[in-house]
Design brief:
EC number (chains A, B, C, D): 3.5.1.2
Strand content of chain A: 5-15%
Number of strands of chain A: 10
Binding site for substrate (chains A, B, C, D): 63, 113, 157, 164, 188, 240, 258
Helix content of chain A: 40-55%
GO molecular function, one term (chains A, B, C, D): glutaminase activity
Largest interface: A-D, 35 and 35 residues
Subunit structure (chains A, B, C, D): Homotetramer.
Enzyme class (chains A, B, C, D): hydrolase
Order of helices and strands of chain A: HEHEEEHHHHHEHHHEHHHHEEEEH
Oligomer: homotetramer
Number of domains of chain A: 2
Distance between the termini of chain A: 19 Å
CATH topology of the largest domain in chain A: Beta-lactamase
Chain lengths: 304, 304, 304, 304
């Protein structure tokens, strides 16, 4: 079956799942999104793409931003980034503060909140406006100059960021942050509030499937080795506390967000983004994980 | 031996210990105090007092302020205070964040930092300026209108308060603080920076030995029962992670601070304050604990 | 009011509380005891005693045995005991394993299970049969040669001791136990199963109120200083996670057990034992704590 | 470059690393193995194999046994196995007991010690002698009837198994083990002590690269889906607290042991086993990880 047909079939078969799951409501703005949305976009290096459903509807990328912020920080610091943040799975969320204490304030990886705050600190120390730098980076990666963050979502994030502020001050007390906590939290809330659609996100992630180079522009984002490092991180840490299950069911490096989006790549082949706001108990898009599982099953293409 | 002679003998015998211990240096201002200071003041309900050494030299009361802030909050909320903060020992410092998480952000007692922040939150929600209210309360308790906080120490505290900010935001994320974290931290840093001498502090604590009434003014600070409650708290939680050892060696309800001061009371009899900046490994004044141990041994008066 | 009348009044007023609380049922044998029992015995150094209710009915002393096992270990090791076990409050039960890990397997005090296992290990390394040595010690302390452990309760304990075994092996892995775990657990289960009545227990604890000497026999159990140390431990660690509240409400050094017994002493005066099987949420006898609170209130005698 | 030459080159280039690392010495028997050993064997489905160095020297497989014990338990219980043990990464070792407590005694995955004990419990409940069943299973998988466990290593394991006993009793207290702890620990110690060489181990793991079927015998060990599940587990949890780094550097599903062995598979192609006793700070073979990294680099074959 070719990919166009696979996506059509997924779109058809996924319908019964769309009412299921639970839309994230820890910030009011996210809770307003209808859970019946479903979109999917798959992009090849030669520019060919397939889209179904709401692939053109923008949504809040949330934690998917951690992947691109980490990429940008990697560009700046190279391997020195790992002096600031680890690259190992973290176990469950419960332990975050215990682990931070035990490991002297160094987060386990850049995809948990504590680690993403360190990454944002890196960006804030290098750019006058970290969130603008990230937005411009995203625009360049996907070729869409209209990409921006949603000011209302960002504001809503800021109003519910006390847990993140606690972690930031805790790391600051260990000397792990260089910039003022307020600045870091502000930039972090804005980057979580970036709005993009499936097509843009799939395109933005394509360099990860293409050895670190954006195919259509030829821009080298990262060398081959750091690109592989990011894929390895996505595999082991990209889907909250369900990484083990996700690797088994889907078998692709991926990064998810509580807005219901998931970006995944098949190294050497394509990138994909799926979006559906209903989340499973791990915080990953319920329909999204299912769609990706069907994608690798029907195409018989995964890392295994 | 009468108390005047006891204090003289303590002052003489304590000399070899004065170079020992380690002056708190987590904020630079505290680190500047010479560790050879030693002062002690004992005050009776009838106004009689005995002083030796540097009993008239002001020092930073630090955590001793938690005792008086808690008294003031108790005046305001009565038993409802215990809805906001517990009254049990906390085990070691390491656990503070774990315990906060496990107990949904409710601190174990008002004498650990997390609990003192909740107490300060109570004061901030009732007074326009919590720190001014506390300073005025202290002035009234000891009868010295010149008592104030040291602005430089307060500023130094604020610059090194990231761990406290982390705890405050963490509790805020559980809905445990009513006021803005910045305001609470600011008031907390000021109250820690209150400067007093041994004589003033012993006098300020006298109501605890006198059923809740300030003897010379007749002002009722607390009823008898809450006064006993505070003494019980001082006994089980007043000296950091050395409460068990302190109860054994000294046998008095007490509250210590990293400035090197310790306030203690013998219910029904007298209050005492001792000060010497060198700290033992638990953060209590090394010479101060020894002096209090000698006081209860030589006078044969303790709670036992 | 004299003590005879105080105990009569307590016995009368406590009746409405006797159906309340929850009888411990983690081992089946304990769960069979009717929750309507109530007994109380108060003993003076001159041999005078007052008893009310079921003061002559034997019950399972459970954790109260920790007090006497610790006394015996103190006799053997003296201050060296504190190399093996700490003497500070432990915070809540939840942390026991975390704290054990953090503190390299050294328990915080001899009144939590981990600490009591270390104490039992000390006894096992010195006596051929630790539980027999303890039983004989108890007989001598209270003058009743019929004291023994209940074999059925001991068996029931052994069948539900997996958590204690886990802690014992954990400490063993840190090199904190000298004897085989099986032997330690067996002795521990037997000592918990010792059956005594209020009168015997009050008498057995009298040395704690009498400077370390058993008044009627003149036997010196401990010197004055270790006796004070034990009282200090009872004050800060004797009543599970309610030590702070107990000190406030009752104001006496005490040790409780989940069998519903509580032993307390007023240094220099008397010892008391109260028993009622219904427990409050902290695991202390609900009616027992109330009875002791009334005792110190009506007699106006407490450590404060 | 063909695989024969790749292995020769690895064998040549690895020499300077062989004195490095630290041989596991938590049990005396392991500590006796010279750290200069190095062996490597790569096996294809058609029977072709390449060996270099000490590929025929038997060593203690230690935690590699967890992979095969888990396979056997999977055969018995199917997907029900995941009711007993999770399948997600666990963060660092420090947290094992905290996580066990937080997750009511259910281990995070079958490759940490707690999880492996649950797997062994499954085997003990189904086989009269779990360790014999596992040995026979290993013999069948690799076709070598001489495979056995080393009785002296097993005895040494048993003498140093207190931490594992602690975990077992802890899980037992949550009702997570069906069989007596002694029996489970005994079987566990024996399975860790199985001695095999690189060639045998590579052959034994070949079914994982071949859709669950042993190529030369045609025996179906597992269906394709559970086979993929095991590979996913190896990827995210197979190399202690270095899974993230290992996925990046090597990019193969793998399972390591403190005896210095590492088994890895390239799904659809081959299996490999490398052995060198010197360990890095994560407990993985230092030279072994390097050899596997060179293998995937030189062959340009990994999951990415």
């Amino acid at each position: 079956m070719d990919y166009a047909h696979i996506l059509q079939r997924i779109h058809r078969d996924i319908q019964p799942l769309l009412g299921q799951g639970r839309v994230a409501d820890y910030i009011p703005e996210l809770g307003k999104v209808p859970c019946t949305h479903f979109g999917m976009a798959l992009v090849f290096a030669d520019g060919l793409s397939h889209c179904v459903g709401d692939a053109a509807v923008p949504f809040s990328i949330q934690s998917i931003s951690k992947l691109f912020a980490c990429t940008l920080a990697f560009q700046l610091l190279g391997e020195d980034l790992w002096q600031r943040v680890g690259r190992e799975p973290s176990g469950n969320a419960f332990n975050s503060l215990v682990q931070l204490e035990y490991e002297q304030g160094k987060p386990r990886n850049p995809f948990i909140n504590a680690g993403a705050l360190v990454v944002t600190d890196v960006l804030c120390s290098r750019f006058v406006q970290a969130e603008t730098a990230l937005v411009q980076f995203m625009r360049r990666l996907c070729g869409n100059p209209a990409i921006d963050y949603d000011a209302r979502v960002a504001q809503s994030e800021r109003e519910h960021a006390d847990r993140n502020r606690a972690m930031a001050y805790f790391m600051k007390s260990f000397g792990r942050l260089e910039m003022p906590v307020d600045k870091v939290i502000d930039a972090y809330c804005r980057q979580c509030a970036i709005a993009m659609n499936c097509e843009d996100l799939a395109r933005a992630a394509l360099f990860l499937a293409h050895g670190g180079v954006v195919p259509w522009s030829g821009e080298r984002v990262l060398d081959a080795s750091p690109t592989k490092r990011l894929s390895a991180l996505m595999l082991t840490c990209g889907t909250y506390d369900a990484a083990g299950d996700f690797v088994y069911r889907v078998g692709l490096p991926a990064k998810s967000g509580v807005g219901g989006g998931i970006v995944a790549v098949l190294p050497g082949r394509w990138s994909v983004c799926v979006w559906s706001p209903g989340l499973d108990h791990s915080g990953n898009s319920l329909a999204g994980v299912q769609a990706l599982e069907w994608l690798t099953t029907l195409s018989a293409h995964s890392i295994f």
